[in-house]
Design a protein that fits this description.
The protein has 133 residues and is mainly alpha-helical. It has two domains: 47 residues, no CATH class; 69 residues. The protein is 53% helix and 6% strand. The longest helix is centred in the N-terminal third of the chain and has 23 residues. It is elongated, with a radius of gyration of 26 Å.
Length: 133
């Protein structure tokens, strides 16, 4: 038995094809599943860069900031509380603050800032966390 999906067709559109006919329910389910699968994958890829990662921020700090600063990321993070780091980041002054603490360091690339912020926020003085760097 064929499954039929009726699509609306107005007379003004002058359309001859108003239905998609599938030979079985399995074929219909495969098509629906394929569409849902593609949408889920697309949303997953689109949202990946949105999330910051404290581990990545720690690696960035070690690679780019540890030597010019003369101290590790844990010491930098402990300079402020989570609320203070959030206020600095929300004001868009994280790079400036890092350069104030480490004058010989270069400014971070804009794409690194969310990751470094996440690291500093997660290991701030009032967080109770201790980084391994």
């Amino acid at each position: 038995m064929a499954s039929v999906i009726a699509l609306p067709c107005r007379k003004a559109d002058n359309c001859n094809i108003t239905r998609y006919v599938f030979s079985s329910k399995e074929e219909l389910m495969k098509k629906i599943f394929s569409i849902i699968f593609v949408l889920v994958i697309a949303v997953g890829f689109a949202s990946t860069p949105v999330f910051a990662d404290a581990g990545k921020g720690q690696k960035i700090f070690i690679k780019l900031m540890k030597k010019p600063c003369g101290f590790n990321g844990g010491e930098m993070a402990k300079k402020y509380t989570q609320a203070e780091w959030k206020e600095i980041n929300d004001a868009g002054k994280l790079n400036e603050e890092l350069l104030k603490q480490c004058p010989s360091a270069k400014p971070l690339n804009d794409r690194y800032v969310p990751h470094v912020y996440d690291f500093l926020y997660n290991y701030a003085s009032d967080s109770g966390n201790v980084p391994a760097c």
